[in-house]
Amino acid sequence: SQTIHQWPATLVQPVGSPLSLECTVEGTSNPNLYWYRQAAGRGLQLLFYSVGIGQISSEVPQNLSASRPQDRQFILSSKKLLLSDSGFYLCAWSVELNTQYFGPGTRLTVL
Amino acid sequence: DQQVKQNSPSLSVQEGRISILNCDYTNSMFDYFLWYKKYPAEGPTFLISISSIKDKNEDGRFTVFLNKSAKHLSLHIVPSQPGDSAVYFCAASAGYSGGGADGLTFGKGTHLIIQP
User: For an interface test with A, which of B4, B25, B36, B102 has the most A Cβ atoms less than 10 Å from its Cβ?
Assistant: First the structure.
């Protein structure tokens, strides 16, 4: 069966510091991978998606970036965090039919 | 411009009764719809989906209805149980027919509270 991991589970970072969140998927090959953010009191907003290694599509312009160095690894990064980057970050995967399955999430607090 | 709308931020239902969660969308290109359940500090869990070629899909206690002409879908949970208390997100995709990998567009969620 497929599983998806995210780490860290929680993170507190100062404004201006870098960020690296990691997501890995097990039990499937060539998944589509996604990063979403849920800000307080809001729905889930798609940030990036990837259909293959090195292929990244950005949905929202911001100071975040994503990379896919391996088939089942998806990384969300920032060079300098802003206060507005605080939120709950979710990674998801799909292989077909657009049903996406989510990881446990990372709670990011920027102070 | 919010393309998927869940106009009820919260809903309270008595245990054993039917819970009906509603969702409206504006993008006529959406052809695949999903419902997710989310507990605090956890990732959303997929519940049920429906493609635009159907108007109803049922899975156990969960049924999703799609009214394309009204651009409206609903999730029915019957009977409602205490463990159903969670935030429910409606989501839509425009890539089903083409097998696309586009991300989902989510509503803001409805907090369902099941009262004993």
Answer: B102
Which among B72, B34, B61 has a CA at the least distance from the CA of B50? B34
Greatest C-alpha distance within chain A: 39
pLDDT band at B94 (very low <50, low <70, confident <90, very high): confident
B41 in contact with chain A, both atoms CB, cutoff 8 A: yes
Whole-number Å distance between alpha carbons of B34 and A74: 23
CA-based end-to-end distance of chain A: 38
SS (H, E, C) A44-106: EEEEEEEEECCEEEECCCCCEEEEEEECCEEEEEECCCCHHHCEEEEEEEECCCCCCEECCCE
Of the given ranges (A54-58, A97-101, B48-52, B63-67), which has the lowest mean pLDDT? Answer: A97-101
Q: What residue of B is the nearest CA neighbor of A90?
A: B43
Distance from CA of A103 to the nearest CA of B (A): 5
| Model pLDDT for residues A9-33, shown as the tens digit of each residue | 999 999 999 999 999 999 998 999 9
Query: Given this model, what pLDDT does residue B96 score?
Result: 55
Q: What backbone phi and psi angles, to 5 degrees, belong to A106?
A: -125, 125
